């Protein structure tokens, strides 16, 4: 009875304030685990140095893959989320006449018409083929002047987030190879006028991504659907080689539930965490670049911009990026995936 009571007590989060850090102790799989909930540093200070030093204690550049840990975590993720089968809407899993329920608007749905159905990819783009190496490229300022372009491009499969720029010198640091890139509808609204007017600039800017999969969250919110479909029609009308695909909202709901079970509490998962999660299901070895939630570099503490291409701050309060990073850092320390924080030697793959 006493042991059960102690286990119940440990199941509750015990949050301790340590300077600028929050250290959380949880009970998981019959043993205690500790990880850091991180707060971003906004200027160089003793607090910032202490925070970054604490992070680097759990980070090793001489990373070693731990096969048992990877297989166990991947099995848990797959059993809860079924990324291979459910991550992407296809003509096979979503026939004409079926309903798709929105991820965030639980009482709203859309019935699949032949017109909508025609924009679905026929079969799941990943099937059951496991990629050997995957690079998930975030857009963090840590990639600026990193010389990681060739290293990123050497991965078998490269995933990028939110239509990032890859030219005008950026290719040296982030690469150009793209197998999948996400497209947030807010970008289409802000940059391309919701595709209600001239559409050629959108298609022209897609050329840098070649024939990559172009992934839209068309059914996360009802207001995302029409603009995502317009993007798909535009790609078809202009005969662009890009291949539009859509997140399955059921998969996103399952993924949110999974990460909550791991201790993450936020309104919505970031695109970066979603893509890292998908990569963990479809790739044997996952490498993360551009994932760093602080405004100072981990090694020389130089100031970093929010993105490698601009310093525009994220408006939304939906995400808790430092908390996500803490969980990814734990996976790094367990040899499940690798986070790259260091610059890459020029010319090295």
Automatic annotation (TrEMBL):
Membrane topology: Single-pass type II membrane protein
Xref: Pfam families: Glyco_transf_29
Keyword Nuclease in record: no
GO biological process, one term: oligosaccharide metabolic process
Signal peptide positions (record): 1-20
Keywords recorded for this protein, A-Z: Disulfide bond, Glycoprotein, Glycosyltransferase, Golgi apparatus, Membrane, Signal, Signal-anchor, Transferase, Transmembrane, Transmembrane helix
KW Transferase (keyword) present: yes
Cystine bridges: 134-283
MF (Gene Ontology): alpha-N-acetylneuraminate alpha-2,8-sialyltransferase activity
Subcellular locations according to the entry: Golgi apparatus membrane
InterPro entries: Glyco_trans_29 (IPR001675), Glycosyltr_29_Sialyltrsf (IPR050943), GT29-like_sf (IPR038578), Sialyl_trans (IPR012163)
GO CC terms, sorted: Golgi membrane
Family from the record: Belongs to the glycosyltransferase 29 family.
Name of the protein in its database record: ST8 alpha-N-acetyl-neuraminide alpha-2,8-sialyltransferase 6
The organism of origin for this protein: Cynoglossus semilaevis (Tongue sole)
Taxonomic path: Eukaryota, Metazoa, Chordata, Craniata, Vertebrata
């Amino acid at each position: 009875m006493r042991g059960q009571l102690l286990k119940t007590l440990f199941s509750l989060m015990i949050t301790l304030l340590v300077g600028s850090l929050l250290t959380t102790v949880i009970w998981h799989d019959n043993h205690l685990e500790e990880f850091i909930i991180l707060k971003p540093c906004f200027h160089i200070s003793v607090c910032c140095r202490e925070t970054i030093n604490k992070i680097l204690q759990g980070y090793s550049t001489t990373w070693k893959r731990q096969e048992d840990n990877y297989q166990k975590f991947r099995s848990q993720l797959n059993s809860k989320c079924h990324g291979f089968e459910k991550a992407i809407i296809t003509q096979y899993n979503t026939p004409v006449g079926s309903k798709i329920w929105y991820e965030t608007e639980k009482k709203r749905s859309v019935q699949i018409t032949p017109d909508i159905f025609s924009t679905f990819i026929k079969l799941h783009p990943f099937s059951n083929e496991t990629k050997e190496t995957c690079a998930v490229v975030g857009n963090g300022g840590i990639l600026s002047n990193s010389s990681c372009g060739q290293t990123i491009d050497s991965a078998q499969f490269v995933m990028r987030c939110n239509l990032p720029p890859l030219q005008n010198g950026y290719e040296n640091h982030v690469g150009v190879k793209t197998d999948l890139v996400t497209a947030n509808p807010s970008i289409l609204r802000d940059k391309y006028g919701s595709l209600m007017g001239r559409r050629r600039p959108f298609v022209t800017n897609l050329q840098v991504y070649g024939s990559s999969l172009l992934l839209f969250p068309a059914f996360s919110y009802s207001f995302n659907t029409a603009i995502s479909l317009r993007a798909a029609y535009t790609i078809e009308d202009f005969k662009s080689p890009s291949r539009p695909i859509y997140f399955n909202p059921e998969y996103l709901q399952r993924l949110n539930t999974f990460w909550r079970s791991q201790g993450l509490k936020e309104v919505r998962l970031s695109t970066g965490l979603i893509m890292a999660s998908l990569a963990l299901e479809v790739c044997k070895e996952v490498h993360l670049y551009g994932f760093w939630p602080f405004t100072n570099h981990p090694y020389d503490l130089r100031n970093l911009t929010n993105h490698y291409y601009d310093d525009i701050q994220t408006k939304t309060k939906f995400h808790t990026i430092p908390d996500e990073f803490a969980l990814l850092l734990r996976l790094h320390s367990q040899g499940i995936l690798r986070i790259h924080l260091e610059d890459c030697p020029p010319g090295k793959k």
